């Protein structure tokens, strides 16, 4: 008849075998350190086999597993162990790379915890080591894919921004084009009445520009256009006004929060500045030009002004008519209309 002690031994053997099978099925390698005596009571074994080391090599590394840890990972492993031993963490967890016999670096993880096993067994540090290389490879592949996707998105954003610039910018002068002028003008016509602010539009046309091209050639004509564009860019408010080239030799300047009198004054300044331009053609030879300018304004909205009066097409037509009045008046002049 079996004694109670024998039954306990049998039960313990059964539990050990169950634990061994569970660890093996889970790919886990058990390790255990007696913190009271400093003795290593259970060493990893499967890890060395998985890394391709034979029994003799495994014995050589058994007591110095750190020699197989990647140099970049050694500090974090030691810090994680020290933090748990000091009671700073509830569980010891760390991921690191181990050098295989082939020289390849494989990812492993350590999970462990300090257990108080009583006076007989002492205080023990128990845990498992297991292979996480496939997971880390997938994480690295995913991180790389995300990085490439982020780079592609940034490049797409740059291309979209470049396309937006091309779609809204005049290639020769760098000013806004007709499309952007109209879009901005329509926005300002919606915004202006809400804030009771006036809106002015200048349209200018270079007088007899065909003669400039015929006499001096198109390269000189382009330089004239660029010089006028620079005048517009230097004089008008960045981020508020919109200076645009809307045709061959036609320019427009949209001026929010600008009443008619101020718009006309600016137009006179611009007309004089254009008349004073000197474009070098050759040594001692310069090209000159003049411009006719039409000015139209929408007054600040009051209680008597309907929103329907604030229409950009109406404003554009009014400025265009004023331009033709300036040409009919002999060119190199400014004409305008308010309301």
For the structure shown, list the relevant keywords.
11 helices, Beta-Lactamase, 2 domains, 339 residues
Helix tally equals 11
Strand order across the largest sheet: 2-1-5-4-3
CATH architecture of the largest domain: 2-Layer Sandwich
- The secondary-structure class comes to alpha+beta
How many DSSP-defined strands?
12
Distance separating the two termini: 117 Å
Largest sheet: 5 strands, antiparallel
Q: What is the arithmetic mean of pLDDT? A: 86
Based on Cα principal axes, name the global outline.
elongated
Please give a structural write-up.
The protein folds into two domains: 4-131, PAS domain (Beta-Lactamase, 2-Layer Sandwich), CATH 3.30.450.20; 173-338, 2-Layer Sandwich (Alpha-Beta Plaits), CATH 3.30.70.270. The protein is built from eleven helices and twelve strands. It has helices spanning 4-25, 46-50, 55-62, 71-85, 118-121, 133-168, 178-195, 209-216, 218-235, 260-275, 312-328; strands spanning 28-34, 40-42, 92-99, 105-116, 123-131, 199-206, 242-245, 250-256, 279-282, 285-287, 291-298, 334-338. Helix 11 (312-328) links the parallel strand 11 (291-298) and strand 12 (334-338). Helix 8 (209-216) crosses helix 9 (218-235). It is elongated.
Question: Short description, anyone?
Answer:
The chain is of the alpha+beta class and 339 residues long.
